[in-house]
Amino acid sequence: MPQKNNSANVWLYDVTRSGTGHPFTDDTGDEWWTVWTPDGKRVIFHSSRDGKSLNLYWKSVDGIGEIVRLTESANDQSPYAISSDGKMLFYMEHNRLTSNKDIWVLPLEGDRTPRPLLQTPAQEFGPTLSPDGRWLAYVSDETGRQEVYVRNYPDLGRVIKISSEGGVSPMWSSAGDYLYFRQGRKMMAVSFLPEPGIPKVLFEGDFVLGHRWGRRYDLSPDGKRFLMIRESEPPSSPTQYNIVLNWFDELKQKVETGN
Hints:
4% of the residues lie in helices and 39% in strands. By secondary structure, the protein is mainly beta. It has one domain (3-257): Neuraminidase (6 Propeller). The protein is globular, with a radius of gyration of 25 Å. The model has no long low-confidence stretch (mean pLDDT 86).
């Protein structure tokens, strides 16, 4: 998400071949918070290109066609995950009047009419649907602390609290047999075979947590590698040399004057 003209834009980075990045969007408004479609052909992101709120758009990766607006709302919206069949987008809607955050779903086929999925007095965000479509994982602060929960989908009637010492940024493995989430410096893993097990530490490190509502890591399709962000070392301050000219004459003068 490099910045240009004081605004954030989406970039694509080739991790397998060229190892270089190029801008995917280029607008004066902020554009970030990306989600890939399952077929890898489009990227969904939120943008303030209309000069108002952050709404949802998508664009083809091959560059063919225009950027398509998916939603139109006075509230800010952030995409999180798409169902494995590519038909449903799960996102957070931030009400600008009440400051409440709720989970919504947008059909990517048909009339694309968004609808609220989970609305409570608490703040809910980070929705992600398991590959088999049985569980919806998300984050809520209903206890006064952000924790990871799952609900059966689509009924949402059964609620299971996954984390107990705080948790954010849930993400399913491609097989749906594990749910991962961040707990401070720790990456946690919970087995789902088929019911949730006990969270265990997978690894830990000083990786960027990023925006409190967003997920700043990803998992390779084969589930063997995590893509994390680490703060780069700040460049060391250049060594400063003070050069004094005619220092011997100055020293001689001080000696002669007794200073």
